[in-house]
Amino acid sequence: MQNESWYSLKNHEEVISPSLLVYPDRIQHNIELMISMIGDVNRLRPHVKTYKNANIINMQMARGIKKFKCATIAEAELLGNCNAPDILLAMQPIGPNAQRYIELTKKYPNSKFSTIVDNETMLSILGELAEVNDIKIHLWVDINNGMNRTGIAPDKKALELYIQLYNHPHLVAEGLHVYDGHLRNTNSKIREAECNTAFEEVELLKKSIEDQDIPSPKIVAGGSPTFPFHCKRKNVESSPGTTLLWDIGYGAQFPEMNFLPAAILITRIVSKPTTGILCFDLGHKSIAPEMPFPRIEFLDLEHSNQISQSEEHLVVEYDDLTIPEVGDVHYAIPKHICPTVAKYDTLTVVKDGAIIDHWKVTARTHKLTI
Fold first, then answer.
1. Residue 303's pLDDT is what?
2. Alpha helices per DSSP H over 3-140
3. Where is the D-serine dehydratase-like domain (predicted)?
4. Are 303 and 181 within one domain?
5. Mean pLDDT, to the nearest integer, of 235-264?
6. 63-97 burial, b for 16+ CB within 10 Å, e for fewer?
7. Residue 2 has what pLDDT?
8. Number of folded domains in the chain?
9. Residue 116 lies in a domain
10. Are residues 67 and 108 in the same domain?
11. Which residues have a Cβ under 8 Å from the Cβ of 366 and sit 6 or more positions away?
12. 274 with 343, same domain?
């Protein structure tokens, strides 16, 4: 698996470019590494946003993983179709999504669904929906411990919100949801210290809840960068996502984590418009374009410098004009895999250099049937 040409296709002439290749052996390695790090699959709640695919969900379920996290109703429905036992929608269901969430729980009664809330207004709305539909809605209070994207600060107001949730006749208090995606220091010791400091307030809030004679709240915490630290907390569920496919963004920042890139772009040179310039068929529509250059790391093209990108094209400076030709195949690791996957209808599955299957990226859309 560590051979330098592990990614190469024997039959690349049969594959259109750009395509996204995935390697099940490497995905399995990443699953096993997650499990070995946490030691208990019951505390593992991987996020499906990275791959949005039933096959990878099933690979994890085959290893005993029963809890999953997702960001959209479509992803939640995909998990329901896979008969995932425990599904957390980690996006507050606002507007029509609140009713869609109700329909979701009714369609898949064999799965336990829960979602998040961070304010009294949404708590009231969801409580009313639960009453009207004669169901119980399971909720986690979403905590903002420094990212400032969603959630409520872990202070007195959060305590009051949790008490209100616990006492509501049509809602069930699950616990606290904490995402600390802002903690990305490349020094693992500093990142761990920052993670622990940010988590202290969450632990204080948990203690405050317990002091109200309320059952101790469960906690779901972290993403991929802080997974190595939260996985050590015996009473906390960890929710990495990028760990399943990995990418060069996290790979360069956190090499000590030892996850393997398991999704590779295949691309071709479409033009050599002038001296020292190559153009590839990897535009905005094919890879995540929000990152600064480089947006990919070529596995087989040294001394290249990515200089511009448009909808269908990636322009690269290159200082060796004797090797690349128009039509040549090259391979690259994306810098940000999650939104890159969402650009493809299918994943091309590769084993031992051969294409063995195509996996549908089912939840790349915002709506399946619900």
1. 85
2. 24-38, 54-62, 73-81, 96-107, 120-132
3. 262-351
4. no
5. 97
6. eebebbbbbbbbbbbbbbbbebebbbbbbbbeeeb
7. 44
8. 2
9. yes
10. yes
11. 72, 73, 74
12. yes
Tell me: do 300 and 177 sit in the same domain: no
**Residues 190 and 96 both lie in one domain:** yes
- In the beta sheet, which residues pair with residue 278? 316
- Averaged over 133-159, what is the pLDDT? 98
Rounded to whole angstroms, the Cα distance separating 196 from 234 reads 14
Residue 250 domain flag = no
Output the pTM of the full model: 0.96
Coil vs helix vs strand at 252: helix
| 3 within domain boundaries | no
- Residue 319: its pLDDT value, please? 85
Regarding whether 207 and 65 lie in a shared domain, the answer is: yes
Q: What is the mean pLDDT of residues 297-301?
A: 94
Tally Cβ neighbours within 10 Å of residue 50. 24
8 Å CB contact between 104 and 139: no
| Residue in the block written with tokens 């979602």 | 115
CATH of the domain at 80: 3.20.20.10
Domain membership of residue 171 (yes or no) is yes
Of 208, 243, 278, which one is at a domain's C-terminal end? Answer: 243
Amino acid found at 98? A
Whether 122 and 239 share a structural domain: yes
Instruction: Determine the structural domain holding residue 333 and report its residue range.
Output: 12-19+262-360
Find where tokens 């606290």 sit. Answer: 176
Question: HSE on the CB side for 61, CA within 13 Å?
Answer: 19
Euclidean distance between CA atoms 263 and 26, whole angstroms? 9
* Residue in the structure block whose two tokens are 């250059």: 293
The residue-averaged pLDDT of 360-369 equals 97
Q: Is 109 exposed, middle or buried (0-12, 13-18, 19+ CB in 10 A)?
A: exposed
How far is the C-alpha of 82 from the C-alpha of 186, rounded, in Å? 36
**No. of helices (H) and no. of strands (E), the chain:** 10, 16
CA geometry: angle 181, 55, 137, nearest 5 deg? 60
